[in-house]
Specification:
By secondary structure, the protein is α+β, with helices and mostly antiparallel strands. It has two helices and seven strands, in the order βββββββαα. It has helices spanning 72-103, 114-175; strands at 2-10, 14-23, 26-30, 37-42, 47-51, 55-59, 64-68.
Length: 176
């Protein structure tokens, strides 16, 4: 899908007409058709929203692209095309992850099976949680050891000061 939409630029310039081209799951945009590429967004990593009757918001988490169509029908066509492209992009990303996982012999499941996918990441999350718990316990043990050692050192220092002062006191008494 390709065509013109208005893109919010900034407060000074407002809405500018730009040429958009959807190629797979990547949205390219240009100042006008045939011009140099102004930007592109991989829709698989975006959050898509509708605002009002003519606007589409594409949020990557880092950049927010605000688009405006001429009418509601155009907005719906573009929005649906973006949703399909996003889904295709996610499917391709899952395939890449699946191939990487299968090549590393770390996972033997089909990522298209939601249950196994969730089960796999749930197990990974549980393993991570166990590691964090172990680190927390070790940290607590170290804190207790440090407290014991510091208390022991303080007692030794107090005793040493007491003995020194006691000796000084006896010497004072002898001299007086």
């Amino acid at each position: 899908m390709e065509g013109y939409l208005k893109k919010w630029t900034n407060v000074i310039y407002g809405w500018k007409k730009r040429y958009f081209m959807l190629n797979g799951s990547i949205l390219h945009y240009y100042k006008k058709k045939g011009d140099k590429l102004k930007g592109k967004i991989h829709l698989a990593i975006t959050i898509l929203n509708i605002r009002g009757t003519h606007e589409i918001i594409i949020d990557t988490g880092v950049k927010k692209l605000e688009l405006k169509s001429e009418n509601m029908d155009d907005r719906n066509k573009w929005f649906n095309a973006f949703r399909v492209a996003k889904h295709e992009g996610l499917t391709k990303e899952k395939e890449v992850i699946r191939n990487d996982e299968l090549n590393s012999n770390d996972a033997s499941f089909n990522l298209n099976d939601n249950y196994n996918f969730r089960l796999y990441f749930s197990k990974k999350f549980d393993d991570l949680k166990k590691n964090i718990d172990t680190l927390t316990q070790t940290n607590n043990k170290l804190d207790n050891l440090i407290k014991l050692k510091s208390n022991s050192i303080k007692k030794d220092q107090i005793n040493q000061i007491y003995i020194e002062n006691k000796v000084k006191f006896y010497i004072y008494l002898l001299l007086v």
